């Protein structure tokens, strides 16, 4: 005997029937139900990742428009477009098509500037998002690999920006490629061959624009999309981090669900970002390639500045001296096939600063876990002041980066402020070496001072401005206790202690463990411990509330008379 099947559900509206048709074939409702219930915490600092994502979407949209009209050819032609000052000038087809986009395609200049401004904002948003993750400790277990994905995404964003910046083949971008060519040729033995292969002959060659174009529109965006997908997948798997507060633990997430709250907020925020970029692109000129002219290897214009995200490499090259004491930075090394020149004054600043920054960036989660011997899962974030050693390291890195960034404008600093270019270079060399050390020490001391201030607020409250006289004649200022919500945030944090070198299973202390012990003592010897319940209770009983209230009543009665 067969059991009659249930009557299938039939929606009454056309939209319902279409939705039911799709859902019955792809099971979309299950995915919407699963992801729509995901809870995300609400904090303003989390928006930087969203800004980066929205800027990338805008880059894809504006870049698609530009792709229809850009011709990545280095073939020679003569310009006969609308921009009169360049008519008849010999140039590449790539530069001609860039001018045509700017002056002859309706909305072309606006879309070029939308693309360029959104690229700058994309790299900035990724950078600030990485800084937020670093300073709050969101990279710790189990999110170390997601931190590495973020570092790869940052490198890819730099690559996307530089490859796109070089495509117009104007004088400014050509000078940037000239610097890259010099760095490649400084690589011993194989540098010249790599340059010939990349540029398609002696610089500037005939192939570099087409190859950068393929990288810019295909490979790099595809890798960025892959990294974004992996990043978001890991966010869903690991759940979102959250700041400490009442009811927030390592086992829960306090916030709002994706649907409908965050879906609506994200949609509105996307159009806000799009509108701001459109306003900036419509009002402020960026990269006026018609002022620079086509690229010619013979002239180098004064005052040229690369985009900010790549300027630190240019600044490192400017800071590197040709001699250190009596030691030259160019060595001629004899080989069986001839003499090769090893140009440390180019190779060192081009590779070493970037190697230091990105090596520390990728390995820091494991360095910190090794120093603190902390293998726990961390879903709660730190306030930067509550991790003084990490905050100091982050500030040192920012100073190191910004000093090299400023060095890329050393000539403009000298001309605008009417100072010697040599003096500017000497000061920047001093800052790039000692600035990070000074910044680390100052930031660490400030963080410890803020912790001590928080401890004082928890134990004694905040100043009320009311002065009372106690019965025995003492004058005191009445402090008002902080509310429980704020007090919870001030006392709920981890304060790692210095852990001396520990022997292994055989009772031997290795050299690596001794180094860890010395670093641990250096980073964590100065610390401010969180306020314990016993300390809070003793502080509240230190001043008699009854005496203070009686004194205030006496003052009020005298005033009323």
TrEMBL record:
Q: Where in the cell is it found?
A: Cell membrane
A single Pfam family it belongs to is Cytochrom_B_N_2
In terms of Gene3D superfamilies, this protein maps to: Cytochrome Bc1 Complex, Chain C (1.20.810.10)
Q: Which GO terms describe its biological process?
A: respiratory electron transport chain
Q: Which InterPro entries match?
A: Cyt_b/b6_N, Cytb/b6-like_sf, Di-haem_cyt_TM
Q: Where is the composition biased (Basic and acidic residues)?
A: 533-545
Q: Name one GO cellular component term.
A: plasma membrane
Enumerate the residue ranges of region (Disordered): 533-561
* Residues that span the membrane, as ranges: 51-70, 119-139, 145-167, 179-201, 213-237, 269-290, 346-367, 387-406, 426-443
* Membrane-protein topology: Multi-pass membrane protein
Q: Could you say which EC number(s) this protein's record lists?
A: 7.1.1.8
Name the UniProt key words of this record, in alphabetical order.
Cell membrane, Electron transport, Heme, Iron, Membrane, Metal-binding, Respiratory chain, Translocase, Transmembrane, Transmembrane helix, Transport
* Cytochrome b/b6 N-terminal region profile domain segment(s): 18-244
Q: Which cofactor does it need?
A: heme
The family database entries (PANTHER family) matched by this protein are listed as: CYTOCHROME B (PTHR19271:SF16)
Task: State the protein's name.
Answer: Cytochrome bc1 complex cytochrome b subunit
Q: Which organism is it from?
A: Arthrobacter sunyaminii
Q: What is the lineage of its organism?
A: Bacteria, Bacillati, Actinomycetota, Actinomycetes, Micrococcales
